Hints:
Helix content of chain B: 55-70%
CATH class of the domain at 63-196 in chain A: Mainly Alpha
CATH superfamily of chain B: Cytochrome c oxidase-like, subunit I domain
Order of helices and strands of chain A: HHHHHH
Strand content of chain B: under 5%
Helix content of chain A: over 70%
Structural class of chain B: mainly alpha
Shape of chain A: elongated
CATH topology of chain B: Cytochrome C Oxidase, Chain A
Number of strands of chain B: 0
Radius of gyration of chain B: 24 Å
Largest sheet of chain A: none
Largest interface: A-B, 42 and 63 residues
Oligomer: heterodimer
Strand content of chain A: under 5%
Amino acid sequence: MSAIPAPISSPEREWSLPSRGKTGMLNLILAESAIFTIFVISYIFYLGKSLSGPTPVEILHVPILDTICLLSSSLTIHFAVAALRRGKSKAFLFWWGATLALGLKFIEGTAADWYQMIYRENFSIKTNLFGTTYYSLVGLHASHVTVGLIGLSLVFLLALAGKVKQQHAERCEVFSLYWHFVDAVWVVVFTVVYLVGR
Amino acid sequence: MVSQSLPQAGAFGEHAQSAPWLERAHEWVVTVDHKRIGLMYITYSLLMLVVGGVEATLMRIQLAVPDAHFVSPQVFNVLFTMHGTTMIFFVTMPILFGFANYLVPLMIGARDMAFPRLNAFSFWMMAFGGLLLYFSFVGGSGLYGAGSAPDVGWWAYAPLTAKAFSRGHSTDYWTLALLVSGIGSIGTAINLVATILCMRCRGMTLGKMPLLPWLNLVMAGMVLAGISPLTAAQLMLCIDRYLGGHFFDTQAGGSAVIWMHFFWIFGHPEVYILVIPAFAFASEIIPVFSRKAIFGYPIMVAASVAIAFISFSVWAHHMFAVGMPSYGNAFFVLTSMLVGVPTGIKIFNWLGTMWGGKIIFATPMLFCIGFVFQFLIGGLTGIMVAAAPFDWQLTDSYFVVAHFHYIIVGAILFTIFAAFYYWYPKITGRMMSETLGKWHFWLFLIGFHLTFDFMHIPGILGMPRRIYTYLPGRGWGIWNMIVTIGVFFQIVAVAIFVVNLIRSYYRGEPASNDPWDAWTLEWSASSPPPAYNFAVLPEVKSRRPLWDLKHPEDPDWKYE
């Protein structure tokens, strides 16, 4: 019962606003970027300041295969959303599943790497300043990948049950923004940790 | 008057009035309605305001005379830590979020926030964050000792927070409380931005949006970029304390100064996160009680955005005494002074709005006039301490304490009181008592000035902050006594305010939909608004849609 009467003379003007889901996700990405920025800054600030070994070059192996997997999963999730928008649910299922598999390969790589370092080489978050910053930065990213994987699997299971339809394309796209963000952050983390910092 | 002809919709929850209390309480707990969540934020903050106020009062009693033994040094440390943390994170932020929650959808002609469930989630995260903080009083040392609340100061500088210097779990409760409530704040900010950008009614372009949603948009953007660094720093502190990390551990090469940087890169924008919604209240209330449209609307928006950007480059003016290189000091002096420019523009705009207006000195307007005056003085002492050499003399003294209380109490709290008197009729359907309101205003004004004007002086005389007592013969005693006397004026004033809030709810004069003859959309809904806000979503053509409605012969949209 608004007191504002609809104007009589005004024709139906064009009135379009941005999508809520995308705006919300972009804002979350902004907030997350700020968190990552602080961790990246502290990683760079503490480079070479550890009082004891090991140093990055002694212990880090560049995860090239994992990086390729993660980055290409951005492409597959894009294909998945595009397929869903055209209503091709088989293709969606394939590409979404591929994204999930590539993400799992990445996290498996990180886990194996960490297992090797923590249990074989006795290099943990407590060892030195480098250990603290390395495990927190890479761990922060890995935890974001894990959250993404949970979301991916949820949608994958729903899609297997035939519950993901064309009208859900926008929601999947909103989720894909998060996944693209996780990939983009990895580009920064990879550059800082494995290229510049080594 | 036009307002009388506005149709009355049924008040929300007529059914709820008759339901048993358990059912009503359940409805509030599970609600996703932006108005109810807003009211829960406000109520929660008012309760916390009392708690934080009691802590402040205890400190002031201790400091009233030299060599006092009212509380022990250990308790004093707890008091100033909890007072600061409570007032910033669990009073001022949630109360502003509460008003934003309540008002933004109504003012942009929407039926709810963009994500109602996220909204409820954010509120409860904040609420339980506060409970976590206060649980430390009983659980701070775990099961093997008496409780101990955090006592590391609200900045929690390293290495005070290291395991070695902060035994037990009090610091953990502090960290986790801020982490949890920070997640809630980020949720609310995401929600506000999405609501304001994506839910505006037809015709409300960004240039036609009222200033309150505009400034809350700026505030929410700042929360996203400003609270997140705090969240990151708290994560690092958790890693240090729980996993044995070395971020802030100087013995392993870590840096205590980097905590300061991380804290203040949050801490200074935080001040503007709090003050920009205060500007928003003033920018809505001053025009209505001056009977003029806001002066310089586009400049007002531009100045707010400018403040938001500049405020992210001033943080290290809190650290002049730490020993930064001279170019660092010079940079932060210049940026800090630069904030004064857009802020000054705003003050001139409010004065320009009042200038030549037909000013009505109702209680909301009185508080806003107090705000403009006190904000100016607080800003001027801010310019003083922004000069690094001056700051070296006065840093960590009571002068600084007086300066930032001038902003937080004199500016922010004053506009919050104004907002209560202004929007109370919309929220409850009844007016607050003007007589009690004027008593509240004058007593609080006197108390405020007694406390915080005179607090500058012991600071200049060299009294450091956070000391639990001082020796006689320093010349600080008389000033501290005056400061403490002012506190009791403030207590009486706030008590009158609380009485007014409760009494007006039952016996206040019934309010029409538009008791102030105002211009923004919330006054077109009934008082209180129905759960759905607007049966027909409104369409606007100017910044003052209700003016257009009331004055069809001379509508605003012809000129904007």
